[in-house]
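Need fresh eyes. Consider my entry:
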Amino acid sequence: MSDPSHFDPDDIARDDQRLANAAERMGPALDFWFRPEIRGLDRMPGGPALLVGNHNGGSMSPDSFVIAVALYRELGVDYVPYWLAHDMVVSMPLFREMVPFGVLRASSAVAHEVFAAGRKVLVYPGGEQDTLRPWAERDRIIFAGRTGYVRLALRERVPVIPTVVAGAHEVFVVLGAGPVLARLLLTKPLFRVKTWPLTLSLPWGLTPGPPPLYLPFPVRMLGEILDPIEFEPNGPDAAADDAYVQRCDDLVRARMQSALSRLALERRSTGRYAFFGRRWAGRKGGQG
């Protein structure tokens, strides 16, 4: 077995065969636990692209695996994106083992290498403020004013592909007081994390901050890959135009919020849980 300490989170040499094997093994378990349905897979273009998602579930981010399996099944391993992750995540021993699967340190230099190789990147612009948003805001897109993803797409001249999953933030419960605890625990200077809320999860119960590992609640995930957005103009000059970048960000967030609100409403009317009750309306087998 490889020594995780030797994995380089800046190295894009992903092991695609290992990733495909993992998708084959994990797929049935994800189908059973989350009954996922991911729509719009046929909208995914070939070549380099920047997938932009709403961040859910803390550091485990189970919907990332759901999206990866759906893309693998429908389009093949070449369409499974690399994931750009926070420094704190790729530095943790257990999560460092994800590097061979394409989980890399979030940086423009790493993204540039992936795009140059003709591959795709998945980013979550809202970071910890999105993935640790309170339960009451679980159906909101929260990017916290971060527009670096737009500048990246413009500089690299790649399309942005909004990717939304409803239900994935219900795998645990995020309570309030996040900014207060973050200030008390000095998480911003120590880890570059601005929020540290109380969370309720299995089997840990009530804990301060997100547990690194937990048993997700068996919630139904309903997602969609939206139409690619190709910004014109693009290039370095466009990326340096703050007003233009903000307009691009407004467009992406508006489309994502519209889709998330629509999918969340559908979940509420057809069933929120994977195998409790009789009102789940998704297809057997999950991905679609």
